[in-house]
């Protein structure tokens, strides 16, 4: 059961203390108190973990300070919408992330040179974007491929981000000590930007890493669906993060591994955007670069990456994680799927038109219901 308290209630309130006293009559239950500071409201949730059939939902809801009580059946209890809970999102570095917001994270999967990084940040600033994707740590299938520069690039990467007004960088981490390295480098640089820790598809069920990013409160987390995992498995993996205390999570769809997707790299799963939004309170991101794996064009002249981006945006995606590079043919990682930086204005205009269409269709359908 999840007990949602009224917005004005704090842990110092008499109503909260009375509720805790009431719950002592059920010593077999584990009680977990979660405080959420969202975009639209802040609230306290009290989670009862264990066999709660003896707890009267009606009696709980009649207690002072209780807004509602919800019986939970899904395993992802902290992140789930459970048919009633609303999305409240979170704020980070002055930006709002919720199921209503929309952001674009553009850049390379892995940072290669100082000059290329500066060119990318400069281009983002020129088109008005303040979010980027930049990998310092990069897992590769072959041990001989470029693995990223690691912590060595963080000082100049953060310096350039501050220079060009980049507010947030999505950066993959592969081990708990990477979090510490990012924290130290940001501190040394004077915190010129924010970081969203990315859990890549290869670490989608690395439970110790999931716990580590969940225990820290400095950075939100972008969790990528495992390319060989069911949606249920991934939602439960994201729950590992939340169960450690960090509920500032963005769920990212990036395609699933199956030969049915050939000749694309993976099978696009963006039809799951509304599914994740219905099942959870998480903002949903799409990564169109990895499932396609190339810059091939359809007969209509539009790249496949653009087409699948449109599919995700029209389905209600709240963010796009897309690869751009000044010289894709010379990129040390994922060059074949990286869009040329000169194409960034066109991509943004394309996405803007699709997003406007989604909002128009959303309005049309909801007004039609009335």
Walk me through what this model shows.
The structure is a single chain. The chain is of the alpha/beta class and 370 residues long. The protein has two domains: 2-70, Alpha-Beta Plaits (2-Layer Sandwich); 90-369, Aldolase class I (TIM Barrel, Alpha-Beta Barrel). The protein contains eleven helices and 15 strands. The chain has helices at 14-23, 57-61, 114-126, 154-163, 176-189, 207-215, 231-243, 273-279, 289-292, 304-314, 344-369; strands at residues 2-5, 30-37, 42-49, 66-70, 90-92, 95-97, 103-107, 131-133, 168-172, 194-199, 221-224, 249-253, 284-286, 319-325, 339-340. Strands 7, 8, 9, 10, 11, 12, 13, 14 and 15 form a nine-stranded parallel sheet that branches. Strand 2 (30-37) and strand 3 (42-49) form a beta hairpin. Helix 3 (114-126) packs parallel to helix 4 (154-163) and helix 10 packs parallel to helix 11 (344-369). It is globular and about 65 Å long. The two termini are 33 Å apart. The relative contact order is 0.11. The model has no long low-confidence stretch (mean pLDDT 93). GO terms for molecular function: transferase activity. Residues 100-357 form the DAHP synthetase I/KDSA domain.
């Amino acid at each position: 059961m999840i007990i949602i308290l009224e917005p004005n209630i704090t842990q110092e309130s008499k109503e909260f203390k009375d509720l805790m006293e009431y719950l002592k009559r059920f010593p077999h239950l584990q009680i977990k108190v979660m405080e959420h500071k969202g975009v639209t409201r802040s609230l306290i949730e009290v989670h009862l973990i264990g066999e709660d059939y003896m707890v009267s939902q009606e009696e709980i809801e009649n207690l002072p300070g209780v807004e509602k009580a919800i019986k939970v059946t899904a395993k992802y209890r902290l992140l789930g919408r459970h048919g009633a809970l609303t999305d409240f999102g979170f704020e980070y570095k002055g930006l709002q992330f919720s199921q209503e917001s929309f952001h674009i994270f553009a850049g390379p999967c892995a940072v290669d040179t100082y000059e290329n990084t500066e060119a990318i940040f400069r281009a983002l600033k020129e088109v008005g974007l303040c979010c980027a994707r930049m990998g310092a740590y990069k897992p590769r299938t072959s041990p001989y491929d470029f693995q990223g520069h690691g912590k060595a690039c963080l000082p100049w990467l953060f310096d350039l981000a501050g220079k060009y007004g980049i507010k947030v960088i999505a950066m993959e981490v592969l081990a708990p000590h990477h979090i510490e390295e990012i924290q130290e480098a940001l501190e040394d640089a004077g915190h010129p930007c924010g970081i969203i820790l990315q859990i890549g598809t290869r670490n989608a069920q690395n439970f110790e890493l999931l716990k580590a990013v969940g225990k820290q409160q400095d950075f939100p987390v972008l969790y990528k669906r495992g390319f060989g995992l069911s949606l249920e498995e991934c939602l439960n993996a994201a729950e590992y993060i939340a169960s450690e205390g960090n509920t500032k999570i963005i769920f990212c769809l990036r395609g699933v591994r199956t030969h049915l997707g050939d000749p694309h790299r993976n099978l696009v799963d963006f039809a799951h955007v509304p599914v994740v939004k219905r099942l959870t309170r998480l903002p949903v991101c799409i990564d169109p670069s990895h499932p396609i794996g190339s810059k091939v064009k359809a007969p209509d002249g539009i790249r496949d990456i653009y087409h699948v981006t449109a599919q995700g945006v029209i389905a209600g995606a709240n963010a796009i994680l897309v690869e751009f590079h000044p010289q894709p043919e010379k990129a040390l990682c994922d060059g074949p799927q990286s869009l040329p930086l000169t194409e960034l204005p066109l991509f943004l205009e394309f996405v803007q038109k699709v997003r406007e269409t989604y909002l128009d269709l959303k309005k049309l359908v909801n007004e039609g219901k009335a």
